[in-house]
Design brief:
Helix content: 25-40%
Number of helices: 14
CATH topology of the largest domain: FAD/NAD(P)-binding domain
Mean pLDDT: 92
Radius of gyration: 24 Å
Distance between the termini: 36 Å
CATH class of the largest domain: Alpha Beta
CATH architecture of the largest domain: 3-Layer(bba) Sandwich
Length: 505
């Protein structure tokens, strides 16, 4: 069956996708291929697609995962560089949207405020806000949240008192256009993926860039170009070369993560060896020696040794210390060192947001996702027709986006076959699930937000797993009708007042 045509004026859909970033575009592409008989729309709060890659405009913005795994399984990454900059990733997304005729399904400047599921019509009633404050209503059988994981409106505020500092202070999430930093002294506060991207990029024209870290971060370097991928593309069909490279990188990442957990000292030695190869055998590695094991927090990628090269050239440095005060002309540390600064960049992390800060309810009763268990890292206990994408912490975001989209397409097909309007992972009130730490990572932005996150059980399927290879096999091969995901029609729901939807309230 071909794709059901939908008008740009339509207000009711089979699936409403929230967000036109990697997750939302991925779901639309999967639906085009696997469930073309289902109608969908994508609502995007911004003026253009891309999500993170459209929002972040700081110098050097790039992926911190290789694009053979951050790219989709259905669309080969064809650029020579596997560590890609923001504009290249946006080009990739725009090509997917145009080649698959997805753009006409996107409604820009549509910000979702509330979504209420009503059993009587098995529909999410979704309230959206336009830039002028006008509100609109759309309805859909399914709500698919591809809204990312952080707050677009606010960055994390560590509460700095800027005191007498007379320079410019900015956050990477809200980078000003045409910032002039030629010949200026820059202090970048932070040691995560954003900081290690900004520092070498700004160092090309700034007088000097200092990365001020409270705690070191484990870093690993790799070439921005994947020689194996580029060779395979020359001798094999593009899709075959991409599939091989993708699987190679997935397995290598899985191997390195598990080795770090099994043999952290060995992994630490390997990471330090890579740094010394660039910096020299006598280089003091204190700035690259965290007090925790590799992969207790996400590793920072240094493509082509760019950060280390900037340090060797004398254009960048890393300082470990705590801020005492912001003074005129720079930053004073607690050990009385003074870091001169014309510009301070607070690369202090993101503020997490669950479900795009959308107010969710069922029949007018508010839902708190922190009270629900994940189901297959995709849905939530006792919540009907709702799916979400929250990517892997130890692998590329898109790996989860792909398997979740594929799984929901399977659910949609099975619902159509059974004449069902509602699918809900049913968890009885008297369950005996043992809770697990949802994220076994010590990163500050994760620990600060644990109270917001849905629950995680020790046993699958009631968890957000961090094992892509295992998850992929389960999501693709295990039956949708697993005895947990209850499918029913709205008529039966009304007649029988079924337990799954009672439990949803």
């Amino acid at each position: 069956m071909g794709e059901r045509p939908t008008s740009s004026r339509a207000t009711d859909f089979d699936v409403l996708i929230v967000g036109a970033g990697l997750s939302g575009i991925g779901m639309a592409a999967h639906m085009k291929e696997k469930t073309p008989e289902h109608s969908f729309a994508i609502v995007e709060r911004r003026e253009d697609l891309g999500g993170t890659w459209d929002l972040f405009r700081y110098p050097g913005v790039r992926s911190d995962s290789d694009m053979h795994t951050l790219g989709f399984e259905f669309e080969p990454w064809t650029h020579e560089k596997t560590i890609a900059d923001g504009p290249a990733i946006l080009d990739y997304l725009h090509r997917i949207v145009d080649e698959r005729d997805i753009r006409r399904h996107i409604r820009f400047n549509h910000k979702v405020i509330y979504a209420d599921f009503r059993e009587a019509d098995a529909r999410w009633h979704v309230t959206l806000e336009m830039p002028d404050g006008e509100r609109k209503m759309l309805t859909a059988n399914w709500l698919y949240l591809g809204s990312g994981y952080y707050d677009y409106d606010q960055a994390y505020d560590p509460g700095f008192e800027l005191g007498d500092f007379d320079g410019q202070v900015l956050h990477p999430q809200f980078w000003p256009k045409n910032l002039d930093y030629d010949g200026k002294q820059v202090v970048v506060i932070g040691s995560g993926a954003t900081a290690v991207t900004i520092v070498p990029s700004m160092a090309y024209t700034a007088a000097k860039v200092t990365m001020l870290q409270r705690t070191p971060t484990w870093m690993f370097s790799r070439p921005a170009k994947d020689r194996v991928a580029n060779f395979l593309r020359k001798v094999l069909p593009e899709k075959v070369a991409y599939a091989i490279t993708r699987w190679k990188n997935i397995k290598l990442q899985d191997f390195s993560f598990k080795m770090a957990r099994r043999k952290p000292k060995k992994m630490a030695a390997l990471l330090h060896k890579r740094i010394r190869k660039t910096m020299g055998e006598d280089y003091d590695l204190a700035a690259f020696s965290p007090p925790y094991d590799p992969w207790d927090q996400r590793l920072c990628l240094i493509p082509d040794d760019d950060l280390f090269s900037a340090i060797k050239r004398g254009k960048a440095e890393i300082v470990t210390g705590h801020i005492k005060a912001f003074e005129k002309g720079g930053v004073r540390l607690t050990d009385d060192r003074f870091l001169p600064a014309d510009i301070v960049v607070t690369a202090t992390g993101l503020k997490l947001a669950v479900a795009g800060k959308i107010g969710l309810s069922i029949g007018g009763t508010a839902i708190d996702l922190a009270d629900r268990f994940y189901y297959k890292g995709c849905m939530f206990s006792n919540l009907p027709n709702l799916a979400v994408v929250f990517g892997y912490l130890n692998a590329s975001w898109t790996l989860r986006a792909d398997i979740n989209a594929d799984f929901i397409c399977r659910v949609l097909s099975e619902m159509a076959e059974k004449g069902a309007d509602i699918a809900v992972p049913y968890l009885p009130e008297n369950h005996t699930l043992e809770e697990d730490n949802i994220f076994d990572f010590s990163s500050g932005y994760i620990q600060r937000s644990r109270h917001l996150m849905p629950k995680n059980a020790v046993e699958y399927p009631w968890r957000l797993n961090q094992e892509y290879v295992v998850d992929r096999k389960r999501m693709k091969t295990e039956p949708v009708d697993d005895g947990i995901l209850v499918m029913q029609s709205k008529a039966n729901t009304a007649a029988q007042n079924d337990k799954p939807l009672q439990a949803a309230r």
